[in-house]
Design a protein that fits this description.
With 160 residues, this protein is α+β, with helices and mostly antiparallel strands. The protein contains 3 helices and 8 strands.
C-alpha cells in the first residue's frame, strides 16, 4: 500500500482521535492476543487494513491511480461482564467519531473518503468490534515525468 496513504491516515488519527490507545495496521491482532501470541491490546483500539489490495490504472506523465481502494477500520473495545451495556454504547460513540473524522476526508494525492459499509464483527468473544469500510483512491506520483525533463523511451522491437 502507498506510504503516503498510510501516513495520512495515521496522522489524521493522531491529530483527531487521541482517545484510541492502540493504533496499528491490522494483522489479526484479536486472534493473536487471545492465543497469547502478542502483547495485550490496549483499548479502545483502532486498526487499519486494505482488504482488497490495490488495483492501479495508468494515467499520463508516469502517474498511476488506484481504482476504488477500500480502507477498513476495525474499531474495538474490550468486553467484560461488568461493562457489557456501557461498553457497547462506548463503541457506538467511537465508530461515530471515526466516521465524523474520515467521511469526506481527503489530502494531497488522496481522493475523498466515502463510507461504503459498516458491520459488527460477530466472531469476537472478548471484544466489541465494528468494521467501517471507506472508498478512496490514491495517485502515485513517484514516477512522475516533469514537463521539460528528458526521458529515454525504448521500443520492444524484434527482428523479422
Amino acid at each position: 500500500m502507498q506510504r503516503i496513504l498510510i501516513q495520512a491516515i495515521l496522522n489524521r488519527i493522531a491529530a483527531e482521535l487521541p482517545q484510541f490507545k492502540t493504533v496499528d495496521l491490522f494483522n489479526d491482532q484479536f486472534n493473536k492476543a487471545d492465543a497469547g501470541k502478542s502483547n495485550p491490546i490496549r483499548f479502545p483500539a483502532l486498526f487499519v487494513s486494505f482488504p482488497e489490495g490495490a488495483q492501479y490504472a495508468d494515467l499520463s506523465a508516469g502517474l498511476q491511480e488506484t481504482e476504488d481502494l477500500t480502507v477498513r477500520f476495525y474499531i474495538s473495545q474490550g468486553m467484560t461482564n461488568e461493562t457489557v451495556g456501557k461498553t457497547i454504547l462506548e463503541v457506538m460513540d467511537l465508530k461515530q467519531v471515526v466516521y465524523s473524522k474520515f467521511q469526506g476526508y481527503g489530502s494531497d494525492y488522496i481522493k475523498t473518503f466515502h463510507r461504503i459499509n459498516e458491520e459488527a464483527d460477530e466472531e469476537r468473544t472478548s471484544y466489541y468490534v465494528f468494521i467501517q469500510d471507506y472508498s478512496t483512491a490514491v495517485i502515485d506520483i513517484s514516477k512522475y515525468i516533469q514537463e521539460g525533463e528528458t526521458v529515454t523511451l525504448t521500443l520492444d522491437l524484434t527482428e523479422e
